[in-house]
Amino acid sequence: MGELANTESSSQAPSVNVEDHDEEDAPPPYGDTFGEVSDQNSQLGVDTKATITDDGRVNININQRTSKLSNLLAPALRNQLRLQDEPAPPPYIPASLGGEPGQAPPPPLNVVIHVVGSRGDVQPFLALGKVLKERYGHRVRLATHPVFKQFVTENGLEFFSIGGDPAELMAFMVKHPGLMPGFDAVRSGDVGKRRKEIGEMVKGCWRSCIEAGDGTTVEVKGDTSEDWMSNDYHVSSSRPTDPHDLPFVCDAIIANPPSFAHIHCAEKLGCPLHMMFT
Fold first, then answer.
1. Does any domain span residue 111?
2. pLDDT tens, residue order, the chain (278 aa)
3. Looking at the 3D structure of the chain, how many domains does it have?
4. How far is Cα 249 from Cα 210, in angstroms, rounded to an integer?
5. Which of 105, 110, 228, 235 could form a disulfide with 98 if both were Cys (CB 3.0 to 4.6 A apart)?
């Protein structure tokens, strides 16, 4: 026991005296102006100053007094510029998707992409949809919040509104962090309002799988599927020019998990589902 005690005492980390540390080890001091951080004691021979802008970005200014920092950064920056100038390699296409001579690609499909979230959530799925449409010839519909309609259509994809406001979604998550909101969220009515919004988006996701149009011309009525799946949207011409006017029943669903309706829509339609985080 005595040897064990000696071993344990000798293996303990030595105590650290904070007063023995040099001032150079301290974090950089804040500047005199709110939102600015300055560092005048860098060992690399530079004066740095960081300023927070109104949109949340950080501008960093570096005033170099020696060449130490340049010697570190210049090779990496040159390598990045060289990689940008090199042409990208041709994409790999599996044989089953027509990647070999004489191998026909699969027939065009109706693909709906369900996305709930911010613009940063929508953008990666928008890029995926463009590849599915332009390279493989599928008809792609991106179903998301109405605030992103122009963002979707100007990139050449069909848009379908599922309702909901991403700003309110983010505000709720910030106000009530964690898996389960507290009783104050129930008393204030935030939970009830959020449930109503989720119900609207679930219906919108289902409609995006089976209806023509962009989701804004059909009024959702009633509480049963027979009520709000009625064919209230009529094509004005027998040969419509707007792709949204063409009948649409999805053959496959791609979705991010917060869209909630994905697995239920796929089960109802008996179609493949691919859920993904970007």
1. yes
2. 545 445 444 445 455 554 555 555 665 555 566 656 655 555 555 677 788 877 777 887 777 777 777 777 788 888 887 877 778 777 777 887 777 888 887 899 999 999 999 999 999 999 999 999 998 899 999 999 999 999 999 999 999 999 999 888 877 777 777 667 777 777 777 788 888 999 999 999 999 999 988 998 755 455 555 554 544 444 444 556 677 778 899 999 999 999 999 999 999 999 999 999 88
3. 1
4. 4
5. 105
